[in-house]
Fold this sequence. Notes:
The chain is built from 19 helices and 31 strands. The strands form six sheets. Strands 17, 21, 22, 23, 24, 26, 27, 28, 29 and 30 form a ten-stranded mixed sheet that branches. The protein starts with 14 loop residues before the first helix and ends in a 28-residue tail after the last strand. It is of the alpha+beta class. It is 34% helix and 21% strand. It has three domains: 313 residues, Polyphosphate kinase middle domain (polyphosphate kinase like), CATH 3.30.1840.10; 175 residues, Endonuclease Chain A (Endonuclease, Chain A, 2-Layer Sandwich), CATH 3.30.870; 168 residues, Endonuclease, Chain A (2-Layer Sandwich), CATH 3.30.870.
Amino acid sequence: xxxxxxxxxxxxxxxxxxxxxxxxxxxxxxxxxxxxxxxxxxxxxxxxxxxxxxxxxxxxxxxxxxxxxxxxxxxxxxxxxxxxxxxxxxxxxxxxxxxxxxxxxxxxxxxxxxxxxxxxxxxxxxxxxxxxxxxxxxxxxxxxxxxxxxxxxxxxxxxxxxxxxxxxxxxxxxxxxxxxxxxxxxxxxxxxxxxxxxxxxxxxxxxxxxxxxxxxxxxxxxxxxxxxxxxxxxxxxxxxxxxxxxxxxxxxxxxxxxxxxxxxxxxxxxxxxxxxxxxxxxxxxxxxxxxxxxxxxxxxxxxxxxxxxxxxxxxxxxxxxxxxxxxxxxxxxxxxxxxxxxxxxxxxxxxxxxxxxxxxxxxxxxxxxxxxxxxxxxxxxxxxxxxxxxxxxxxxxxxxxxxxxxxxxxxxxxxxxxxxxxxxxxxxxxxxxxxxxxxxxxxxxxxxxxxxxxxxxxxxxxxxxxxxxxxxxxxxxxxxxxxxxxxxxxxxxxxxxxxxxxxxxxxxxxxxxxxxxxxxxxxxxxxxxxxxxxxxxxxxxxxxxxxxxxxxxxxxxxxxxxxxxxxxxxxxxxxxxxxxxxxxxxxxxxxxxxxxxxxxxxxxxxxxxxxxxxxxxxxxxxxxxxxxxxxxxxxxxxxxxxxxxxxxxxxxxxxxxxxxxxxxxxxxxxxxxxxxxxxxxxxxxxxxxxxxxxxxxxxxxxxxxxxxxxxxxxxxxxxxxxxxxxxxxxxxxxxxxxxxxxxxxxxxxxxxxxxxxxxxxxxxx
Length: 765
């Protein structure tokens, strides 16, 4: 039988497509631009010092995920001769080259900010110091030696690298030390110079705190005169990195050798799952096996201390099978995300954003039956400004209510100690019919979701994993309740996850309703997920992959038909889908006014004459992560507003189960248009405008009062909560009073400002 060989496939777009390609920005480079905007917050001297450190840690974590998934995928395309040229026309090799240039510059700037601004600021202003071994006092050295001998040395494993000891398979994102050793020739060591590897144990804290000087007594100056005449803060605490502790005593692991030097390095690997669900008899077990395998996927990046000798760098590069562009020389602590524990310390509150407590919305401040409140009117919550506890309370009350017969819920990501999962368990124990659709393939949350699935199953919850080949990304909860002689259903829908932890830092929108049409669609959705039963048509939902893409295109096309009377405002995390972008270009050419608020990736190129001059794109990066998906279409004066779990990306339209739904309540609809969207478009403090070349610039105030949308949302939440509940009639019975902490400190001082009407010339113009 003749052997078949794969011929290399040309990935260069045809000449006819190159002009079209210039209308699209590259997805990967656009993401790097987003991470650059996060880095901008770390560079901003107006951001509180510890918050600047927080943004540096976010940049580091974001880059990890980017390399593990996006860069790894491009490398696979390149090695497999896969022709998957994106709409912008760049081949995989061209993308990797551009990514390397941009990412190296970003990492260099990230560490410059750490060395020149954040680290000195922490030391001189907040009294937080990173100590190096050369600066330790004799007492500190004695303490570190004791700690090393007692807690660190027992868990270390020296790994020699020679012909008899191949280079070890180091775990993904592991921190290691390359130990250069010297010994005279002997029976056990025929070579004089060898390299060994010691893994820095991930089971131990990366930061070891050293005793600091006592803080000044109350009423005294918190600081001493520095040599340059400024005032240096008294040391609150100092710390040393675990790898430095090991380096100081690593000779104990290699008796008979002389340690020449120790160089820390870190390996990033391909971390994406590769699963053939059609061949998986047990999806849970298959994913567990894949999770173990991917810890040792092919290397995609090497981070190493900048002063490491070139021969050591070359040795590691060869051992890990990396290219020169994959090497990142770092002048500072590797993986700054590990310094996040500093930002969380209570004794650094004065260097963080002023605290904000999510508020209880007036309809839910006083009630004795949350279902009665929802039955009377739809309720919209804007997180994190309005409390997510109402969502938790919705599920918790359903679990305890003897009239509730069933609870059905999707779970994509949730917290480590989830009160919602505990409520579902209680509901099952109380004899209710409980169904949980747990998405095992939620990237980087696979392991905790597997554990939750097992815990729920053990409690009697009916757990399903969704549809083969699709991720269940929709956020839906359905409660079925007996009221008198009939059945009443209550629905919660959201743009974000059922995670109380992220709900305090992610900007999302929740929606409660008891409308029968919404309940019918929610019930049909769960039947689809658990039994492959799809309705012939949806009443109020649009569902991916069953028509959501087509629906978005039709809505844009309808506005296109209105010409200059058309208007579109869309807020999302990412805009990538080529068909949607082309539809928006056609709408712009027809004169439709289009405002896009895209936090992250945006492949649409705005402001191109004759194509997109009527499209404006803003990105807001601030204290909270902008996460809501909101779509507004003028519809000839009808003003239709939709919320969704889906971004405008191919994966959301084609490879995920997503839900988009309208806001039918006119008051709530107008609130989204005139408050949430209008304030976001009016932001001239934290908003950046996308330029035609793919770069971003800060929006100028142009003499207008400063408007920071997230601060204004905090102010509005407090004002509404302080106004108190408006009850439909005389109070009867005993009410549960749930009053927020109304006296919480205000956010950073930005005066209230009037937002421009949606669709007017925005600040991005």
